[in-house]
Structures are given as structure tokens and as C-alpha cells.
Amino acid sequence: MTQSRLGSIFRRMKHVGVIGAGAAGLCAARHILANQGMVPIVWEQSEKVGGTWNFTPQTGTDKHGLPIHSSMYQNLKTNLPKEVMAFPDFPFPEGDESFLHHSQVQKYLEIYTEHFDLYPYIKFSHHVEEVKPIIKDSGPPSWSIKVKDLNSGEFSTTVCDALLVCNGHYSIPRVPVIKDIENFKGSQIHSHNYREPSPYTGNRVVVLGASASGLDIMLELAPYAKEVLLSHNLPVAIPSDLPSNVRQVRGVVAASENGFIFGDGTSAEADIILYCTGYEYTFPFLTKECNVTIEDNVVKPLYKHLIHSTFPSLAFIGIPFQICPFPLFDFQVRLCTKVLCGELILPSKKEMDSDSEKEYEYRSSIGLPRRHFHKMGRLHWQYSDSIAQEAGLEPMTSAVKTLFDTVHRVRRGSLMTYKKRRFRIVNPEFYEEVI
Question: What pTM, to 2 d.p., does this model score?
């Protein structure tokens, strides 16, 4: 099929399914709705918008027996300032603080939903059970989406011209394999199920992992725990002042009945290990016919970490991590909607797959392991700019980029104090710190 023919098919599209009403799903619904003739249908298994920002003190399963989705804990504050977190054309409400409590982010998403009149398009308490492609003689497939109304127990099936998967990837814990862990008599918990620090009072806790959640939870536990061992394999120690009862150790390599052995051969007793070891990509609703695989933490076959190269009417918003999330969601969604309405013609499948392979090779050449293919980090703006360029959008402003990079740089050197700082965007080029 010619690309012009593909574009004409997309121009006739009407119904676009969206799985999830978190930040990515809400952004998707907003931009789908903004395109004349396109209507979003959003399925959300909870009773509220917000996704992972929709805090619940519950862990385990909800009243319907489904796994709790949110990984929020009671006292969490953002590790990015609101000045860079916002969707590009929808700032957070004015306020003195830059680093917000999770409830303020949840409220922002509710305001966003109301402002763009998205509620009529969201089916709450609806769980997506099964997604199948409907293959046509020509053109991209349509999608059959089977959902369960969690309140009535009834099933229904909807056919959509396209599908945006926005189910998030911070809900299914990744737990490492540790030698002899079955011998450890203490407690094991993943940060997904962490809610507040008081249960750790007087305990010796190993926090395994020193990314955002590991560092935040370590600081929150310190006033309560007897000792916190921050276990990681970073090339150098975290260069920040830390609470007096926090000690940095190498990554855990084995367990004993009463503690752990670390990568440098040292050991320590511990009562609890708290895994801050990330999450798995999972799409249990996709049938085999969807031709989506996850190999070594890489979701395939995605063009630009986003669009299914075989079935370009299927896209996954928010797969990359270590990013500036809401602005990137906005760019990704706008690229997808331009494709779906025929305004933007994608490269051929062969060209899209070749582009992905070149990115694999580039990342390998700079020492990044394959399992970190979706990890952006220092490559974040390079990726964000490439999405903006392909979609014909203005890139993120210099002020936002510079502030994001500044906070990223100072965070590790000032872990105990950086969230007290306040910022203001002066204009698209500059920000200032508010003293």
C-alpha cells in the first residue's frame, strides 16, 4: 500500500480508543477531541482520573480483585518543579512551592480534565480485557476492544479505528533475583507497596536502588529506622549530605538468614529489604495477534518508542522513562494525532524498523545496555526534539530545558534540601530562582 493511500484511510478515522485516564490518557483524549471528526473513547479501571497520581492507602488488590495501580505513597512530593512538569500550554495553578505534593498533581489533572471537557468520554470502572486487531485487505487494522464494566460485571466490545495505549508502566514491580533470598527471615517489600514510614520504626532497612524512589524513600525512612543501607551500583557514591543513620553500600548479591552480602564482599544484618528496583512493561490485554513483544525490557516493534511499525494505528504513549513526562506525553500524542488524521505520513515499515535498529546501535556505541533502550536520561531532550521535529511542533522552550537540567544536576548533591527551592519561568528563554 502506498503511503498516500495510508494517509487517506487515516483521514476517514472517527473513533480512537484510549486505555487509561492517567496523565497520558487524558492528554490523548484532549488532542483527539481537538481534531474535527475524531472522537476518543477512554477506558479507566478506577473511579477517578489520575492514573498513578490517584493515591490510595490500599496495597495488593482493589475491591474488584484487580492489582492496585498507583505507586504513590502518603508523603510523596515531586522531584521535578511544577514549572517544568506542566503540559506545554496548561500551567499548574500559581503557588509558592515548586515541588508539589502528589495530591496537588492529582488536582491539576482533574482541572485539566474539566477544562477540556473530557469526562463525557471516559468510561470509569471499565477494565480492558482483550484487544485484537481487525485485519483488512488494505490499510492499517481496526481494533476490537473487549471491556468489563466492573460495577455490573457485564462485558462489551467496541471497534475503534485506532488505539492509544496509556496504561502506564509504574504498577507491576520488578523484583531482582537474589541468591539465597529464600533464607532471609526478614520482610521483603517493593516500593510499589510502600505507603508511609512508621512501620519501619527501629528496623535496619536495606533500600535496594538509588533512582528517584529509592532516594526519596531512603530520606523518609531515616528518621524512623535504626539504620538505612542504601544499596546501589552507581559508579560513585551519591555526593550529597545524608542523614547520620544512612550508609551507602554496594548492590546486594546474596542473602543470609539475618542480612545481606554486597558486591564488594561486605555484609550487614537487616530486618527488611525494600526493593526500589523499577517496574515491568506489561500489556496483558493484548492478544498474540497484536504482534507486540517485550524482550529484555524492550517493547517491540515501536517506531520512536511510540508507534507500532507493523500496525501504525496502534501506539503506546509514555514508554520512555527518565523523562520530563507530561510535556513528552503531549508531543507524543500530537505526533500520533497528526498521523491518524492524515496530516503526517509515516515512513515505510522498513524505514521505521531501520530507524529503531540504528538507535539500538547508537546506544550500544555509547555504552548503554539493551535493557535500557527506553531509558532517556541524558538523551531526553534529543528524543523530545526529534518527536517535535517529526510532528512539526515547536520544541520545548529553553527555559524549561535549562531548569530541568539544573534540577537534575543539583538533586544528587543536595538531596536533603533541593525540594525547598522555588523557581519561576520568566519567559521562554529564561527562568529564575525565587529567594
Answer: 0.95
